[in-house]
Amino acid sequence: MQASRRLGRFLAPYWRWAVLAPLLMALEVTMDLLQPRLVQRVVDEGVLRGDASVVITTGLLQIGVALVGLAAGVGCGVFAVLAGQAFGADLRDALFRKVQSLAFGNLDRLETGGLITRLTSDVTQVQELVMMLLRVMVRVPLLLVGSLALAVWTSPRLALIFAVLMPLIAALLAWIIRVTFPMFAAVQQRLDALNTVVQENLAGVRVVKAFARREHELGRFARANERLMEQNRTALQAGAVTMPLVMLAMNAGVVAALWFGGVSVVAGDLRLGELIAFVNYLTQTLMSLMMISMLVTRFARAEASSVRIQQVFDEPPELVPSPAAAPLVHPCGRVAFEGVSFGYGTSSNLPAFQPVLKNISFVAEPGRTLAILGATGAGKSSLVHLIPRFYDPSGGRVTLDGMDVRMIDEAALRRSVAVALQESLLFSGTVRDNIRYGRPEASDTEVEEAAKMAQAHDFISRLPNGYDAVIGQRGVNLSGGQKQRLAIARALLTRPTVLVLDDVTSAVDVATEAKIQVALEELPNRPTRIVVAQRISTVLRADTILVLDDGQIVARGTHEELLRDSPVYQEIYASQIDSGAIIHD
Question: How far is CA 422 from CA 88, 437, 532, 560, in A?
Answer without folding.
Answer: 36, 17, 9, 27
